[in-house]
Design a protein that fits this description.
The complex is a heterodimer of chains A (202) and B (92). Chain A has 202 residues and is an all-alpha fold. The N and C termini of chain B lie far apart (59 Å). The N terminus of chain B is likely disordered. The chains are: A mainly alpha (202), B mainly alpha (92).
């Protein structure tokens, strides 16, 4: 990393491992690393509680995976529109950026709507049917803690992305800011991929 | 960005791979395989998908190594967490 300094004898500005443009990215990555440990702790805790429990319902049977598969697909799509929005802004195409960024926000909002529907249905119908309850059964508790913690992240992401969309159109944010927001949004997608596997499919 | 045209194409390719892997994941649960094999397959697929998102959408593949180091630390710590908890999970 310090080769440039050695070769030029420090005559030119020293090249640090991270260019100034990526300091914001480093900041977001540090936040995400901490956030990943929160999710990691929750997922590991979930695994241990499940392993230690004498009985555990088959998640796919209780939760159903059709709706969740759709939600997974939705988040993947909104991740794609996020990278396309960034690419459009880097090309200087504001109209295209607005379209893709709007799509990303819409995808997140629909995801939240579906999750609200899923929770309502679970609490009102499915859990009582299987004689499970949020307060008494680890299966239900861990489910709501994990998906709830993730859902809060999606909520934050939708608000964050909306602010970024507004700030770009007011000329206050550029592509580099969108890239940092993108990191957060892809992380939320990445975590859902893991939750979908560990909580619903396994 | 000189590579923009190329990366646009790349994003769609990654999207298709992610979708196909998701379909395979759901398919795996219906095959009636041994439980252990299903778990190994599902976790492998999930880590694969997560890695695709991190490498391509989060651009780790093209970033400075520093960011990859930051990104990998929580995963290493989670493995440590599991190892440290093993005596509790399998007491003598």
């Amino acid at each position: 990393m310090s080769e440039a300094v050695a070769v030029h004898g420090g005559a030119e500005p020293a090249e640090t491992p991270l260019t100034p443009e990526s300091w914001g990215k480093l900041g977001m990555w540090l936040f995400l690393a901490g956030d990943a440990m929160s999710f990691g702790g929750l997922i590991v805790g979930y695994g241990i509680l499940r392993h230690a429990s004498k009985t555990w319902p088959v998640p796919a049977a209780v939760l159903g995976i059709n709706l969740t598969a759709l939600m997974t697909f939705l988040l993947i799509v909104s991740s794609v529109t996020m990278v396309l929005a960034l690419a459009a802004l880097q090309d200087g195409d504001r109209a295209k950026f607005n379209k893709f960024m709007g799509g990303t926000i819409l995808g997140g909002a629909i995801f939240l709507g579906l999750q609200a529907y899923e929770w309502t249905h679970l609490i009102g119908h499915t859990l009582p049917h299987y004689n499970l309850s949020f307060t008494k059964d680890l299966f239900a508790t861990t489910f709501f803690v994990l998906t709830g913690f993730h859902g809060m992240h999606v909520t934050g992401g939708v608000i964050y992305n909306s602010c970024v969309l507004a700030a770009v159109n007011r000329g206050r944010y550029q592509a580099k800011h969108v890239e940092i927001a993108g990191l957060y949004w892809h992380f939320v997608d990445l975590v859902w991929i893991l939750i979908f596997t560990f909580v619903y499919l396994l | 960005m000189s590579t923009t045209a190329h990366s646009h194409h790349n994003y769609i390719k990654i999207f298709i791979i992610l979708s196909v892997l998701t379909v395979i994941e759901i398919g795996v649960t219906f095959l009636g395989l041994p439980k252990m094999l299903i778990a190994v397959l599902l976790i492998t697929l999930a880590v694969w998908k997560a890695a695709l998102v991190a490498m391509h959408f989060m651009h780790l593949k093209m970033e400075k190594t520093t960011l990859s180091i930051v990104a990998i630390i929580p995963f290493i710590l989670c493995v440590f967490l599991i190892l440290m908890l093993l005596p509790d999970i399998y007491p003598h």
